From TrEMBL:
<dbReference type="Pfam" id="PF01486">
    <property type="entry name" value="K-box"/>
</dbReference>
<protein>
    <recommendedName>
        <fullName>K-box domain-containing protein</fullName>
    </recommendedName>
</protein>
<dbReference type="GO" id="GO:0003700">
    <property type="term" value="F:DNA-binding transcription factor activity"/>
</dbReference>
<dbReference type="GO" id="GO:0005634">
    <property type="term" value="C:nucleus"/>
</dbReference>
<dbReference type="InterPro" id="IPR002487">
    <property type="entry name" value="TF_Kbox"/>
</dbReference>
<feature type="coiled-coil region">
    <location>
        <begin position="25"/>
        <end position="52"/>
    </location>
</feature>
<feature type="domain" description="K-box">
    <location>
        <begin position="25"/>
        <end position="129"/>
    </location>
</feature>
<keyword id="KW-0175">Coiled coil</keyword>
Length: 140
């Protein structure tokens, strides 16, 4: 649409004057007709690519259509494969990140177990000292 407006403006600039309303209407009617024809061609091409309305095509036209479809299918497969490869790469990176986090957490857990064992020894030693002190006080 923008290219049509640009052409209209360029036509006005090239002529050095603003089109009168009748000329402007004719210009837009021609543009509308061209766009209608282009739309019809695109719709016809789309129908043929979808396998519709093929009865009026000869063998060469059918071969050309088949080649276009094969090229299109190949492009789709290449794009799909690339997207899958990209997704696999992202998932592998996420897996590596999760593995590293897991290792960090495992290290923290081991450290906590060690600290817990040391605290347990301290508590046991303190309890033994209390017990000894209690026994000593009872003995005296």
């Amino acid at each position: 649409m923008q290219s049509i407006i640009d052409r209209f403006n360029k036509l006005n600039e090239d002529n050095g004057w603003i089109m009168d309303p009748a000329s402007s209407v004719k210009f837009w009617q021609r543009e509308a007709a061209c766009l209608r024809q282009q739309l019809e061609r695109l719709q016809e091409s789309s129908r043929k690519l979808m396998g519709e309305e093929l009865s009026d095509l000869n063998m060469n036209q059918l071969k050309d259509l088949e080649n276009k479809l094969q090229i299109g299918l190949s492009n789709v497969q290449i794009k799909k494969d690339q997207m899958l490869k990209d997704e696999i790469k992202v998932l592998q990176q996420e897996g590596i990140f999760i593995h590293k986090k897991n290792e960090e957490l495992r290290t923290k857990i081991n450290l906590l177990h060690e600290n817990n064992a040391e605290l347990q020894k301290v508590i046991e030693a303190r309890d033994m000292e209390k017990e000894k002190a209690t026994c000593y006080q009872q003995w005296i």
